Amino acid sequence: MLRRLRDVMAGIGTPQQRLDSTVQVIAHELGAEVCSIYVQRPGRVLELCATQGLNPEAVHRLFFQPGEGLVGHIAETRLPLTLAEAQKHPKFAYRPETGEEAFQSFAGVPIRRSDRVLGVLVVQHVSMRELTEEEVESLETLAMVLAEVLATMSLPGGDPGRDRGPLLIHGLRIHEGVAIGKARLHQPRVVIGGVVAEDPAVEHEQLRAALADMHASLDRVMESEALSAAGEHRDVLETYRLIARDTGWIGRIRDAIDSGLTAPAAVQRVRDDTRSRMAAVKDEYLRERLADFEDVALRLLRRLAPGEEVLEVDGGGEPFILVARSMGPAELLDYAGDQLKGLVLEEASATAHVGIVARALDIPVAGRLAHLIDEVDPGDLLIVDGDHGQVFVRPGDDARAQFRESLSAREALRARYAALRGTPAVSRDGARVSLQMNAGLLVDVTQLDTVGAEGIGLYRTEIPFLVRREYPDVEAQTELYRRILDSAGDRPVTFRTLDAGGDKRLHAFVHDVEENPALGWRALRIGLDQPAILRQQVRAMIHAGGTRSLKIMVPMVATVEEFRAARAIVNLEIERAQTRLDEMPASIAVGAMVEVPSALLAIDELAEAADFLSVGSNDLLQFLFAADRAGARTANRYDPLSAHFLQALKRIADAGRAGGAEVSVCGEMAGRPIEALALVALGYRSLSMSAVSIGPVKEAILSTDINALSEFILYSMKKNTGSLRNRLKSYLADHR
Ligand code: PEP
Ligand code: MG
Known about the structure:
Elements: H1 2-10, H2 15-30, E1 34-41, E2 45-52, E3 63-64, H3 69-77, E4 81-83, E5 105-113, E6 116-125, H4 133-152, E7 167-170, E8 172-175, E9 178-185, H5 200-223, H6 234-244, H7 247-258, H8 263-280, H9 284-304, H10 311-315, E10 320-324, H11 329-335, E11 340-345, H12 353-361, E12 365-367, H13 372-375, E13 381-385, E14 390-393, H14 397-419, E15 425-426, E16 432-439, H15 442-445, H16 447-451, E17 456-460, H17 462-466, H18 474-488, E18 493-496, H19 524-529, H20 531-545, E19 550-554, H21 560-580, E20 588-594, H22 597-601, H23 603-609, E21 612-615, H24 617-624, H25 643-659, E22 662-665, H26 673-681, E23 686-689, H27 694-702, H28 706-719, H29 725-734
Parallel strand pairs: 9-10, 10-11, 11-12, 16-17, 16-23, 17-18, 18-19, 19-20, 20-21, 21-22
Antiparallel strand pairs: 1-2, 1-6, 2-3, 4-5, 5-6, 7-14, 8-12, 9-13, 13-14, 15-16
The site of phosphoenolpyruvate has 10 residues, from strand 17 and helix 24.
């Protein structure tokens, strides 16, 4: 049947005549009263292009908007749909011109090629009969053959599935900035040349050879020394190796070949099935396992069919924008380099871990961009606007000019900040502020010199754990911390112990499902309940420290007792090291993060107990105002410049001074110029922020008289409630 269909479609006659014969053949073979082909047109509108059984007058006159009706729904979800009674489905849209009221059942599948939806294939019956799983599978196989022929047919009204005009896709802001470059697909689409096999034996042999080749190559990479240099990660590969030998998976590919498909088409069929299942799975662990199958299928497909990726994009050393459905943090690191200018993702939330790496690389990122993969071809020009969370696909002249302007304005600004690199941050009236940077990856550390940071005020140790699947042992941690200290040279580094849990779920950890993860078993709580974790971290830090001074900071301290318990654990490790190591760090300071409101109530005692305090304003604000920092409606709801929050911050600064603990702020607010000035005015002399914020904050400090500002703020805090932002802005504008 497959061969017959292919012959009809590739045979003589105009494209329309061939489509007409195709629907007749399919309807006949499947014993259906109706068979229709809808083709996707520019704007993702679906047009009825051929039908057997519906009113022929409706051909080229019936359209469904994206997501409209059952047909639009199938194209949108990319999933098959089978219904005994079509009218009962909430998406059913009645179109009198079709005469379809006579038909009860409905079954449709997307027509896909290289991940792109070209249209929808539908069969309908008079009787109420839901298609069996096998029947849906054959329909999907037919759709594959259809896709192959449709892609080479020139239909009136343009090529199906193609919208080559400019397009703007709105999504979610993940990291700010703008960038222009050619699209490079993270997973190059694979083009399957032939779908229908001439001889199954030949296809089985091809599959066998490709599998053997893939197994051998995975084994080779696992054994090679250059494992991490090649950007591959051992634990990921180990999983792939197991999957690649999974007999169930291979068996399903073999069955697909037996049904008449070529080897690559069979792999693609099984891959499509896995994807459909992925869409329905909620469990994160299972989703990841299915995603591993997807990756292995792609590796196998690349051996069986050529990739679509345009070589010039891959090898030409041109600036590129990476395009992906979703992506892990470690994968993004593999692309890090001069030519990676931005990242756009079809999925991903603002807190996705890949965002952490993107921020470290300081490339603009937009996420949750609907139909991105469908709309973009490799080599297409893209403009990522991270500030507004959008992407311009194949931008027109206007958009290009506008973005070139915005790009050059940013570059000018950067150059201005770069010129301040060596200048210390001293206010007009002589207040000296230490500006440090937050980091979490080795690539961050390289920014120390670029932006002129005086040290690392917050090194988030959980971030390197996030990009691994396995928990790093003491040796691996020591190596990592040593490399950071080495890159920082004589600049101080404050290591924060593991702040896992909450939104930072580690692969290597079993996190319980918690009702309120932000208030859950996380950070220091894990460290105190499982002291081995904390001890290993501290041990690695001491080993890495050599004779340098060490600063260790514990997150989420809720009570003074917790801090004392953490310090006792550090002391155990100091004693252990003293008996074993030849050299010890010159000093080991232990500090507490102030980010839980209860710590505020005990701030005087905490300042006595700790060597230093660092305000985690992100969490402090979230917990004080009971507003989720990651929630779209809650994140920016309360202003850190509100009088009462500033009172709390002043209280911490005062307590630190009285208790002899150095105080700093390492939350996001420290990196925003107006907020940073307010903090300096409240008495903070040390701020830690993302690298890109150092320039703007320094410029603000250089041009401000802190004493005068301090008087103004203290007075305003007494006289007002609510946000002081507007007052502060006017004051700063008046004082240039
Ligand atoms: C904070 O809470 O302000 C902070 C700096 O830590 P994190 O953002 O890692 O929670
Ligand atoms: Mg925090």
